Amino acid sequence: MGKIFVIIGKSATGKDTVYKKLLEDRELNLKTCITYTTRPIRDSETNGVEYFFVDEEVLNKFQKENKIIEHRSYNTMHGVWHYFTANDGQIKLDEANYLMLGTLESFIQIRDYFGAENVIPIYLEVEDGKRLIRAVMREQKQKQPKFAEVCRRFLADEEDFSEENLKKAGITKRFINDDLNICLNELAAELKKYTVNT
């Protein structure tokens, strides 16, 4: 059986960059499972790459068909944004290993859906000051920066990724992403411990 590796961490810890770089590693040969969101697409994003950007009608359709693996909702300053993973045929554990992006909440739901033996967390950490600077710099590149949302997300992360919540989720290993290359080398070595040729 293959494994599902779920990259999690607070905002601006480099999750998207690590995700893309690990997928480029041909030796790891990881497949993707694109999740869905109802939030607006960012200027730097492409539909079907970072997420499938959909409306609530699509979410409701999957819910009626009992095809939701995990689902999170966030009450933002711009309305409720939904993020979810659907059992839409993308994941075939008898054929491949997968890499996903998620939150602590989504990791737990995916783990419970597929079994703890098949779902491995990759928890990224960056010092809070560095994270905030990264988040502000990223938002400045948007056509219409939403700095209030950056602040909301930053504060929400403190609660979502509290030590208590990490402990409850069984997160024990952490990967410090101060230097991307060092972090990627550590991650590649860790993933190879779990992956098998399927």
Describe this structure in words.
- By secondary structure, the chain is α/β, with parallel strands linked by helices.
- It has 7 helices and 9 strands; from the N terminus they run βαβββαβββαβαααβα.
- It has a 5-stranded parallel sheet. A 4-stranded mixed sheet has the order 4-3-6-5.
- Helix 4 runs antiparallel to helix 5.
- The longest helix has 15 residues.
Shape field: globular
Residue windows where pLDDT falls under 50 for at least 5 positions: none
By DSSP, the count of extended strands is: 9
Q: Could you say which structural class the secondary elements and strand pairing correspond to?
A: alpha/beta
Break the fold down into its secondary structure elements and pairings.
Layout: E1 4-9, H1 15-24, E2 30-32, E3 36-37, E4 52-53, H2 56-64, E5 68-76, E6 79-86, E7 97-101, H3 104-114, E8 119-125, H4 128-140, H5 147-160, H6 163-168, E9 174-176, H7 180-194
Parallel strand pairs: 1-7, 1-8, 2-7, 3-4, 8-9
Antiparallel strand pairs: 3-6, 5-6
Helix pairs in contact: 4-5
What are the key terms here?
alpha/beta, globular, 198 residues, 4-stranded mixed β-sheet, 9 strands
What is the compact description of this entry?
By secondary structure, the protein is of the alpha/beta class. 39% of the residues lie in helices and 23% in strands.
